[in-house]
Design goal:
11 helices; five-stranded parallel beta sheet; about 375 residues; about 45% helix; binds 6-O-phosphono-alpha-D-glucopyranose; six-stranded mixed beta sheet; alpha/beta
Length: about 375
């Protein structure tokens, strides 16, 4: 049994560890300019660089509607922050299973964006048909070239994360975030919302991510292992975040639910007072994403607000595990446990934050004797409704 479990767990652990090697999606940068060459990555159905979604099309879209399921939906929520902030283009995010049944209002001038690891999720395919029927051009962010969604889409951004075996998505998620950041940057450029200097800064920050993920994998695994020992008997977990960090809280909760069968909820930290505060006592572990980009005043403000939320949790006896950036010594005085990650741009921090949450879920599941790769009742690809 122990051997079987070890083998079963291997794929999930391996794919979590593969992440830093999987950023071929990082755009090509022309030597003479800071322009991120996204069209090279947008392929047509034959895998050729796309012409049917032109630079002019990308410039002309007046909105983006993202449709996805599960972990890909969490990537979509983070992508909304990236696209709205960089490209100043309004973004709506829908669950595919909801979108298809709510008679959406036609919008042929918006981009329909499907995010899907497999490209075969039935609800996502149905939502794509609905988008196309309403006149939208569709672009897919997908890990499987040739899959149903990529065949229907006018353009595809491939995530190139390699085959993902474990049911719970890990490396595909970080690859989706990378693709979304790249797309947001491209939209910002074609819409004239960003200077070359800012573009270069963001591309430099993006290029640091693979080494930073490797560093996290090296430095936080043991801590996550110890945290699993301390908290594996907990019945419930809360995950909190603000802004772009809130979707990562949702994803952390989903990973824990999926593979360790512990009830977990993700919540926007500022909403705690409207209900979840009633749950807090000394038996409740609360994972708070309390990172910040010191160069970004809006990020610092959110961090300060998150610290207040953390104090509200600890004052009620809740046991806080904080995710914070390296060098943040202040937070260690407020909470029981801190996991440090390297500093990055506000919009890139999510890619780093999710790694310890994936590792925590993994160690919790192993400790509880769960089959990490094949959780009960779940499928890797949900091809029926
Ligand atoms: C299933 C998988 C999840 C995945 C979701 C969406 O539920 O277990 O890991 O996030 O489907 O899959 P997709 O392939 O469309 O991203």
């Amino acid at each position: 049994m122990a051997l079987a479990l070890g083998l079963a767990a291997a794929a999930q652990q391996r794919q979590t560890r593969q992440q830093p090697l999987k950023l071929p999606q990082v755009p090509l940068i022309r030597a003479s300019t800071t322009l991120v060459d996204v069209p090279v990555l947008v392929l047509d159905k034959q895998g050729q660089p796309l012409e049917s979604l032109s630079r002019d099309d990308f410039r002309a879209f007046n909105a983006v509607r993202i449709v996805a399921c599960g972990t890909s939906w969490h990537a979509a929520l983070a992508g909304k922050f990236m696209i709205e902030r960089l490209a100043r283009l309004p973004v709506d995010v829908d669950y595919a299973s909801e979108y298809r049944y709510r008679d959406p209002i036609p919008d042929s001038s918006g981009l329909g964006l499907l995010i899907t690891q497999s490209g075969e999720t039935a609800d996502t395919i149905a939502a794509q048909h609905e988008l196309i029927a309403k006149g939208s051009k569709t672009l897919a962010i997908c890990n499987v070239v040739g899959s149903a969604v990529t065949r229907l889409a006018e353009g595809v951004i491939t995530t190139n994360a390699g085959p993902e075996i474990g049911v719970a998505s890990t490396k595909a998620f970080t690859a989706q975030l990378t693709a979304l950041f790249t797309l947001a940057l491209y939209l910002a450029q074609v819409r004239g919302q960003i200077t070359d200097r800012e573009s270069l800064h963001l591309v430099n920050e993006l290029s640091r991510i693979p080494a930073q993920i490797e560093e996290i994998l090296r430095t936080v695994d043991e801590t996550c292992h110890e945290l699993a020992r301390a908290f594996s008997t907990a019945r419930d977990f809360l995950f909190l975040g603000r802004g772009i960090h809130y979707p990562i809280a949702l994803e952390g909760a989903l990973k824990l639910k999926e593979i360790s069968y512990i009830h977990a909820e993700g919540y926007p930290a500022g909403e705690m007072k409207h209900g979840p505060n009633a749950l807090i006592d000394e038996t409740l572990p609360v994972v708070c994403i309390a990172t910040q980009d010191p160069g970004d005043p809006s990020s610092v403000l959110k961090y300060e607000k998150t610290l207040s939320n953390i104090q509200e949790v600890t004052a009620r006896g809740g046991r806080v595990i904080a995710i914070a950036i390296q060098g943040d010594t202040h937070i260690a005085q407020l909470v029981e446990h801190v996991i440090h990650i390297p500093q990055s741009h506000e919009l890139l921090l999510p890619i780093l934050e999710v790694i310890p949450l994936q590792l925590l879920a993994y160690h919790m599941a192993v400790r509880r004797g769960c089959d990490v790769d094949q959780p009960r009742n779940l499928a890797k690809s949900v091809t029926v409704e």
